[in-house]
Structures are given as C-alpha cells and as structure tokens.
Amino acid sequence: AEYKELKLLKQSEKSTVYLVCSGERKYIRKVLAGQHPVYEVLRDNPHPGLPGLLEVTVSENSTTILEEYIEGQPLGTVELSKRQFSTVVKELCSVLTFLHQKGIIHRDIKPSNIMLTEEGHVYLIDFDIARMPREGLDQDTRQLGTRGFASPEQYGFSQTDQRTDIYALGTTLKLLLTKKTEKPHYRKVLQKCTNLDPDQRYRSVEQFQRAFFPTKRNLLWSCTAVCLSAL
After folding, report:
1. What is the value of pTM for the model shown?
2. Which H or E element spans position 87?
3. For residues 151 and 164, is the Cβ–Cβ distance under 8 A?
4. How many angstroms separate the CA atoms of 62 and 39, rounded?
C-alpha cells in the first residue's frame, strides 16, 4: 500500500516518527536507531490493549515500524469517574500480564504512554525502550526511562524485570487518583508497588490486581489475618 506522510511527530538521534495515511486510515511510522526485536514479538502476538503492527523491519542499524494510529487522549489529561478508573486499571493489568508472559518489560509506563479512546478503552503505546530480560546480567546494559516514573533499578542498580513495570504502574495510578476514584486501600497497595526495594513490591501484575480488587473472600482472609496477629 502507498502511505502519504501527513506530519512529522518527533525527531531525535534515536527516532523519527511520522503520522502517515493510506486512504482514510491513519498510521504511525517509526524509524528507530538500532535493533528492536521486541516489535517483532508484538507484531506476532496482538492484544486488544496494544496498537496493531502492520510492518516491522529490523536491519543491522535500524528498526522500521508501521503501526495503527490510536485516536484518543493520554491518561492524565482526562478526569476519570470511579467506573472509568476501575476499567483503566483492569485493562492495564490485562495488557501488562500479557506482555510479561511474553517476557517483555515495557520500562516506560507513564500517563502519556497510555491512550484512552472515546469508548473508554486504554492502549499502551511506545515500546522503544522495552526489553526482554537476559539471563546472567546483574543490571541493564543501558539505563533508560522517564524520571519520576522509572524504578531505581533502571538507573543501574540491578536488571529490570516485571517489578519494574509494577513500580511505574504504581506511580502512574497515584497520579490518577482523585476524590472521585479513591478507595481506602488504594494508597497502601500503590505504596507497596513503589517501594524502592523490588523485593518489597508485588511479584506479578496478577498479585497486584488481587490486592487492588480484593474479593470478599480475600477481604475476609486479610481481616482474619490481622485479627489473629493482634492476639
């Protein structure tokens, strides 16, 4: 298909990003410096919370991507109702669980990388610094991330893993909390997500989700545990 360039969205040493179209449909075309095999994995493993990837070409020095353009607004620019907030958290948990099962760590979760559509669904975008952990490494080879959202291990303290994304998810959700969306236990759960020590965080997104959306059975169990510890 022929793609017409509509707009240059971003240009830096590491990437050039265009908004392009074919007929009435819009797409994002990225040319990234270096090899980004993560995009090949994402192309072959679609998920409703990720932009569809039409083309991925990894060469020796660059990676070229053509992906679905997501119409929406970044989280943080929209005030969410209690129901919307709950849906956003559940959909983020779904996409992160999926990614982690594929061995992919996003490493740059923040409100501007989460698009909210008019229908109320979220898409996680921008996998330019995502990585797949490698055995035998004590820390990442490159320290990357967004200050304020990136976990301490992204600054060279250890190798990033799924707890890295749980940290950034916690910082993101803290920002989105309002009087409308707040529930008594949310702050405590998010505090555990953002512990500076990865070993003190939730080990998986599923574990976080159970704490954030406790069932009556879980609540009864935790209340019993507290009562017993007080004896």
Report:
1. 0.84
2. helix 82-101
3. yes
4. 12
Given the residues 108, 128, 140, 165, the one annotated as active site: 108
Strand segments (E) across 114-191: 114-116, 122-124
Partners of 58 in beta bridges: 63
Question: Tokens 């209340």 map to which residue?
Answer: 223
pLDDT tens digit string along 154-190?
A: 555 556 789 999 999 999 999 999 999 999 999 999 9
pLDDT digits (tens, 9 = 90+) for 98-146: 999 999 999 999 999 999 999 999 999 999 999 886 554 444 444 455 6
Residue 25's Cβ-count burial label (10 Å; 0-12, 13-18, 19+) is: exposed
Catalytic-residue membership of 108: yes
With beta carbons less than 8 A apart as the criterion, state whether 165 and 96 touch.
yes
| Distances 217 to 93, 107, 222, 226 between C-alpha atoms, Å | 21, 33, 9, 14
